[in-house]
Structure formats: C-alpha cells, structure tokens
TrEMBL record, chains A, B:
Superkingdom, natural source: Bacteria
Higher taxonomy: Bacteria, Pseudomonadati, Pseudomonadota, Alphaproteobacteria, Rhodospirillales
Tryptophan synthase beta chain-like PALP domain sequence ranges: 82-387
UniProt xrefs under InterPro entries: Ser/Thr_Dehydratase (IPR050147), Ser/Thr_deHydtase_PyrdxlP-BS (IPR000634), TrpB-like_PALP (IPR001926), TrpB-like_PALP_sf (IPR036052)
Cofactor annotation: pyridoxal 5'-phosphate
GO molecular function: threonine synthase activity
Key words, A-Z: Lyase, Pyridoxal phosphate
EC number: 4.2.3.1
Protein name listed in UniProt: Threonine synthase
Length: 413, 413
C-alpha cells in the first residue's frame, strides 16, 4: 500500500475573477492586482462542476494537507504547485481553562503555528506564489509586519522568484532574520505597515515587481480559505458556534466566509454558520470602530500600537468584506487591551502547555471578554485561531540560577 | 461523514520491559528508571498480536498523528493520552540543492519543527508524560539543552504534573522562556547537560521527583520510535537508503531502529534497512570517536562546544545502543565543523526556503561531506532529520534601512 500523493493531480474549476465590490467579471489566468475600480478581487469556480467531481470520501483518502481541496483551489498545472510540507493544522482543546471558566462546550484552538514558516501567512502566500509562478511573475514585493514576509520569502525562493520585502523598522529581529535568510531582499522602513505598502505601490512601475500586498492580488484569499475548508472537515463537516479571528488585513476571515459558502454550494455543509468574531487590539481597532458605528468602511486608525504586531494594521483595503462577513454571520468585532493579551498568553501556556502568539492570545482574551458580556454563551462551541507559533515572539526571561558547586537543598526545589 | 477520532481507542500490546544491555525481563505497568544493572530499558510487545490486529489500511484511515500507531505504543488507557495536537511531520525534498550537487535521487528533510513545542522532543516527552500519568507520577525532573525541557513542561502542565527543569546557563533565552512560561520550575546551572543530569539524579530521593532524563526511563524511546513508523508509512513502507540523524543522547536513532525491527516483525516492511548515520559536531563527537575506534561505549568528550547546542551532549548513556544500530545498519558516525553547519543553514534557507535548526543543518552538512568522501552515493535516497524549528535559534541580523521620507530610487531595489 503506497502513501497518497502529496499533491492530487486533479483539475481546478476556476471560471473567472470578480470585483469584490461591484461584481465586475474579469478573466481568469491573467495577472491581476486590484479590480479596475480599485477593489479586491475574488476567484469564482464552477461549483456545480466541483459538486459533481468531489466527495467527502475522496478528500478523506488524500494526504493531510490543503492540496486535498485542490478542486477548490486555483492552480491549474501541478508543476506550479510550490510546497514546503504543509500540514492540516491541529485542533487543540483547552479543557483546563474551560473548566475554570465554567464553560460546558469545547473551547478549541486551531494552531496555525505548525505551518511552514510558523504562521497562517503560509496559506495565502503559498497560493499567491503558485499563481505567480503559473502566470510568469519573476519578482514579487510586499509590506509585512513579519510573518507574511517570511512566508513570501520562503515560497518564492523555492519557486525561483525574486522578492523584495518592506517591514516597519521595529519588527522583531527573529522575523527580519527569517525573511532575509530565506532569500528576500529586506528593507526596514521608518513607518507602519501601511507606509511600507505605499512604497510597494510606488515602486511597482519602476522596479517591475508584482504587488503581493494583502488583498491586492486575488489568490491570498484562496489560500486562507483553506482554514475554513480544513476546520469544517476536522469538525466532521459541522460548523462551530463561533470563530474568534485575530483581524489585521482580514484575509483569513474573508477567506473562511467564502469557504463556507462554497462548501454549502457543493452540498458539504448546510446553512448554519459560525458567528465570525473579528478580534483587534484596543490600540488599533479600526474594524471594531466601524462595526460599532454601523459603517461599511473603516477609517484609518491613528497612532496604532499594540504588543500584537500582526494585528497592528491601521487600514484594511478589504474592510467592507470583513464587516459584511461579520454582520451576515451575526458576529461582532471586539477589541482587547494589551494587558489582557499578555495575561491570556500566560494562562494558556501555564495551564494548557500551549504557547500562543500574542495575536492568538488576543482571541482567548476576547473570548473571555465576550463570555463576560454575554455575547457568547457558556454552551457555545468556539474556535480560537492561533495564527503563528509563540516561539517567534520575545517574552519575559525565565529561570533561576543554581550553582552546582554549592550546597543544594533539594527539598526546596 | 465524520472525521476520524484523534486518538483511536485500541489496546496496547505491551508484554514486558527489558534491560537494553542484559535482556533481563522486568514487569510492565510499573515505574522504572534504569534497569537493576544500570542500563536503559526497552519496551517489548506481543508483535504476533499486533500483526493479527493491525493492517496498513486500518492505519491509513486514522487521523494523521502518531496515535494512529497506538497498538505499537505503551499507553493502556485512552484517558491517559496527553495531546497537544500532534501532526505527521512533513517530508520536504530539496530539489534545487540536489540539482546543484548533481544528485540523482531524492534528498528529503523530515521537518520535526512542526510538532508541539517546535521540536522532535515532543515525541519522547509526550509518551513519557502519558506513562507518568498512567503510573501516578506527580513530579518530573530533567536536564535539558532547551527543547526537551520545553516539551516536558508543556505536556506535563497539560497533564497536571509538576516539573522541575535544569538547563546550562548559556541556553538561549527563547528556550528558557518557553520552558518557564509553560509552567516548569526552571533552574539555570553553571555547567553542561551532563552536570544538570547529575543534579536531577542527586535530588531524586529528597525532592521526590521522577527522573525523566534521556534513556533513564523506558518511554521516551517509544515516542521517538514514531519517527521511524511515520517515515516508513510516508515513504509507502519503503525504506530510504540512508538516514542522517543529529545525535546527542541518540534516543531517536535507537527508537527508529527499534521501529524498523517491529515493522518487519509485523510484516509491514522487509529486511532492507537504511544506513543509520549519526551526525555530531566536531566540537562534541564522542560517538564518532567510539565508532572510529571500534568501541562499543563512548568516553566523555571534554570541553564540548558547538553552535548546535542540541547535540552538545558529552556523554550518552545509550552509547552502545546507538553504536550497535549504526554498525548493524552498515552506517557510520560523522562529525561536521560549526562553519559547515552555518553554511548549510544558509544554503537550505536561501535556496529551498526552509529554515533548519543548527542540528538539522548539521545533517545537510554531513550529507555533503559523505557525498564528497564517497560514503553515500549520488543515487542514494536520503532522509535528513531537522529536529526543531529554525525559529528557536538566534541568527545573523537581516534587513537594510530605508527612509520613506527620502527620495527612493526604485530602479535600484
């Protein structure tokens, strides 16, 4: 008995691209950034075709990585698949903390830190790189708070595509080192991620790079969509009651929402949806402010600051797609203080043995807060997204010195 | 269609324990450290029973984690399984470097950095903690160079077991922080890992802790054994030609060798074995020295030093088990310079987008060296073990400053 092929050689069912705001139809298999009207682009599939071709049993027999959903992904030719050993990220319940909170349903962390380059950014950037390869791109550029740049660098180097990455100059050294070691040309910019983004846009014509910024090309959403496909399959094609998602650019939230719609269209799930809950830090909460004001677009957040650098995103071009999904789902947007994030990180590590990243810890802090104000119930089965490995983040020093040449009182250790 | 259970509820086939040196039989289901004669203990199974109960098809239908091999693991009661979301670690080929080396067969990295706590230590410590829970242990202690301590802390905290961990005082901060955050009491010792190990042994009676040091309890080998089981299944139950394994305490090498014997006994593989190649750093190479001298035991390596802290292990209690396996397999032990390790780390990251840990990079350096001296051939299919995520390690700084307020010449970026 041989192991299943890592990449099933099946067709894609992509029919066309579509402006996320106006619905304007654009051709597939052409290089696209924003739509002609300046909005993010969505990828559309022949879902009737997928429904006829794909079964749950077929998927179950494939290798445990996101290429098992190949029919719902945009890559046409298998030779353009760029892989760094993707895995289905595990679901890890928090039984000890659930007991402490008096919760009766499961509280589950989906640990995205197990992906290549240690974060969920691998999903989006892998697909962006595959499609860039398929469409003949030779040079890609992006702004990053760290993890996206690392994922782009890794997948692009593997594909033989050159990369130029811009990050805020206070990005942690571990992220900068990772990006540079993995073959990108990295620039440290005196500004935030939206400032970096401007440089990418400005330099495009002169430098000849493809702008891979969040939602400025169509395929990162398709990669992030696999979080929703995977989660649904792992839960036996049952939806949880709520999903807490750390929200910067929001690609993952938008992607999961799209995944659920596609899964319903192919008959894999019913009409039940989880409440989509956008988690932000109180020092940078443009989506929360827009949600509470009943607006469809979010204003730029001035003087953004938070320990959770990955969600320090003052402006998101897909704000309306995030807010639409949150509202349609009956969910909400919620902001948490940095102190609550730090406490959550410690609680989950010490009690459950699970070291979250600050953005992942923010989702646990938000869950506690929403339990407290009644917006989620003790009987709700919730999924918290830990978007990256906790090992990438500087933390308080640990350990007490012990002199092995001295006299040690072991009864006190 | 529901997802397969994360932990299949099947029996274990453990019959007894056995001294790894003398073969003396010891009862299962009792707490054991070293054998009465002072040697590491091996776990034995009713392999005829396993053969009758287990098929490749049965395994293929189970969730993609090491509990799919439950019949070959020692935990009796499912409630004693402690899990942090294990995954089958991916096999990642290095096609660009293989081409550059003129190699005609696959060069594959098995990336153990995807496991809980970011290293292969999770395998051994998960099983040690499960069995400690099953046998009623309340407090565990161990010496560590970093990753083992992190894995013990995480799994034990999750199991509600107290931990005391000792590490050399020059252990990287990221490791110490991780251990402490995950709930262990951590002591920084002025010495190397064998000095830390002495403290664990000395304090045992007074402090009442269970000594979880490498090979001083029977179950870490059983956990590490899953590397061999998993690798065999992922390669379609075909053995590779050679396995390059970074060797400190050697539990994984011993465990894989045991796995292959058990797989042959249950009829899953034939008699072909990979050459087992123990990789050490030239600044700490006790196994290499013993291998070359034709000895069965290794002398303590004085003044051990290497950038690959995980293999800075001056003395290994299971030296004879490592050397036996290496020799029986037709393999060898090989030492690489720190400069070669650092170059290997850069080459694999830049060319293949894969950031190895220094110990993992040592296996690539060793592979190149062995290709050069003819001990492996260009047609040999080899597996290199990357034992931990590269993100845990301090690396050279990256990134060039860019002033967004200045005039930027994009044609030069």
């Amino acid at each position: 008995m041989s192991a299943p092929a890592a990449i099933p050689d099946t067709p894609t069912f992509v029919t066309h691209l579509e402006c996320g705001m106006t619905g304007e139809r654009l051709p597939a298999d052409t290089l696209q950034n924003l739509s002609p009207k300046g909005w993010p682009i969505l990828v559309r599939y022949d879902l009737a075709g997928v429904k006829a071709a794909l079964t749950k049993e077929l998927i179950a027999g494939r290798a445990p990585n996101w290429w098992r959903y190949r029919e719902l992904l945009p890559v046409r030719r298998t030779e353009n698949v760029v892989s760094l050993g993707e895995v289905m990220t595990p679901l890890i319940p928090l039984p000890r903390l659930a007991r402490r909170l008096g919760v009766t349903a499961e509280v589950i962390v989906k640990d995205e830190g197990r992906l290549p380059t240690g974060s969920f950014k691998a999903r989006g950037l892998a697909l962006a790189v595959c499609m860039a390869k398929e469409l003949g791109v030779e040079k890609m550029a992006m702004p990053t708070n760290g993890n996206a740049g690392a994922a782009l660098a890794a997948y692009a180097s593997r594909a033989g595509i050159e990369t130029v990455v811009f990050c805020p100059d206070d990005t942690p050294a571990v992220n900068m080192n990772e990006i540079a070691l993995q073959g990108a040309r990295l620039y440290k910019v005196n500004g935030l991620i939206n400032d970096c983004g401007k440089l990418v846009g400005e330099g495009k014509a002169t430098a000849g790079w493809f702008d891979t910024s969040t939602l400025k090309e169509p395929y990162r959403i398709e990669g992030k969509k696999t979080m929703g496909l995977e989660l649904a399959e792992q839960l036996g094609w049952e939806m949880p009651d709520a999903i807490f998602y750390p929200t910067g650019g929001g690609t993952g939230l938008i992607g999961m929402w799209k995944a659920f719609a596609e899964l319903e269209a192919i008959g894999f799930i019913g009409s039940k949806r989880p409440k989509m809950i956008a988690v932000q830090a109180s020092g940078c909460a443009p989506i929360v402010r827009a949600f509470e004001a009943g607006e469809r677009h979010a204003k730029l957040w001035e003087n953004a600051h938070t320990v959770a650098a990955g969600i320090r995103v003052p402006a998101a071009i897909g704000d309306f797609l995030i807010l639409d999904a949150v509202r349609e789902s009956g969910g909400f947007a919620i902001a948490v203080e940095d102190a609550a994030i730090e406490q959550a990180l410690k609680d989950v590590a010490t009690e459950e043995g699970l070291l979250l990243c600050p953005e992942g810890a923010a989702t646990y802090a938000a869950y506690k807060q929403a339990l407290g104000d009644g917006r989620v119930k003790k009987g709700d089965r919730v999924v918290l997204f830990n978007c990256a490995t906790g090992l990438k983040y500087p933390m308080a020093d640990g350990g007490k010195p012990l002199d092995r040449h001295g006299s040690i009182d072991y009864s006190k250790l």
